[in-house]
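wait is this the right file?? whatever heres the structure
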């Protein structure tokens, strides 16, 4: 585009004062197609207005997760957690992103013990001493999405369960630290996967992180067990989730097709844990927008 035209990112600035230098840098780069390296399309780059919108959605999303910090305990039903999440998000002028997404019937996901993800809250499911549970929440505010989850240990849990929850959080944090501008998405998965395997765990690969912000599940797909230097180039303005799903045993999973059609479980019935953050790629590293 012409240097005096308005920039493609929608910032309202002239191209020469906005993303001209960025495009020139990309044009100078050589991508290795044999490694699956991908040039990021313009549609995955957020301008300052977009980032502000995602950040505001993240504030509400974190508030809902903070509420879960006070509610998760033995005897509470997952339906009670879901209602609290729904009411909190709506009371703050936003919309629960999970509700009715591709038919999902609730406002958050509650995944207990061997459930990897997409557990559906229910009045029939009551948390008990020793459970570990992931609460996954997405908030939409003025069209902008923020997505994050936390693990909770219900009462006194086994040392093995505590270790899995702790190491999974470490995997997420290590993955975020590896998310650097002008490096690749594969660096995130290489870092997450290495730490999980060093601790003897399996890493779910058929599910992973994703671009998020101006929509729910956007490019790029973020694997949490892959090779460094592969996948889409990470550049300033991208927003995505880092959400390793780490299994106590095998990485293999299955979806409960005979039940609700959503719940993903470990194939060997062993424990699974997940932590998730929405991050922004900046000029110097990664900023957490919701966690």
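ok assuming it is, sequence goes like this
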């Amino acid at each position: 585009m012409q240097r005096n035209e308005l920039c493609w990112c929608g910032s309202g600035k002239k191209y020469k004062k906005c993303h001209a230098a960025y495009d020139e840098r990309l044009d100078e780069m050589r991508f290795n197609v044999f490694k699956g390296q991908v040039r990021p399309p313009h549609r995955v780059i957020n301008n300052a207005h977009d980032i502000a919108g995602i950040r505001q959605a993240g504030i509400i999303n974190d508030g809902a997760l903070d509420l879960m910090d006070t509610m998760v305990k033995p005897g509470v039903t997952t339906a009670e957690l879901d209602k609290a999440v729904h009411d909190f998000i709506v009371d703050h002028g936003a919309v629960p992103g999970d509700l009715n997404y591709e038919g999902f019937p609730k406002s958050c996901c509650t995944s207990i013990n061997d459930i990897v993800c997409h557990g559906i809250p229910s009045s029939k499911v009551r948390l008990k001493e020793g459970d570990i549970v992931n609460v996954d929440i997405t908030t939409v505010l003025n069209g902008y999405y923020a997505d994050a989850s936390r693990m909770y240990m219900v009462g006194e849990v086994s040392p093995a369960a505590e270790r899995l929850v702790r190491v999974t959080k470490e995997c997420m944090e290590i993955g975020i630290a590896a998310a650097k501008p002008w490096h690749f998405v594969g660096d995130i998965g290489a870092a997450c996967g290495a730490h999980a395997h060093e601790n003897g765990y399996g890493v779910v690969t058929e599910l992973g992180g994703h671009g998020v912000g101006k929509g729910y599940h956007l490019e790029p797909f973020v694997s949490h067990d892959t090779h460094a230097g592969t996948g889409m180039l990470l550049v300033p303005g991208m927003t995505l989730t880092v959400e390793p799903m780490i299994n106590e045993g095998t990485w293999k999973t299955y979806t409960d097709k005979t039940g609700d059609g959503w719940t993903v479980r470990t194939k060997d019935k062993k424990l699974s844990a997940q932590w998730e953050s929405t991050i922004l790629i900046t000029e110097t590293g990664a900023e957490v927008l919701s966690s």
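Residues 103 and 191 are 34 Å apart (CA to CA). so i think its the right one actually
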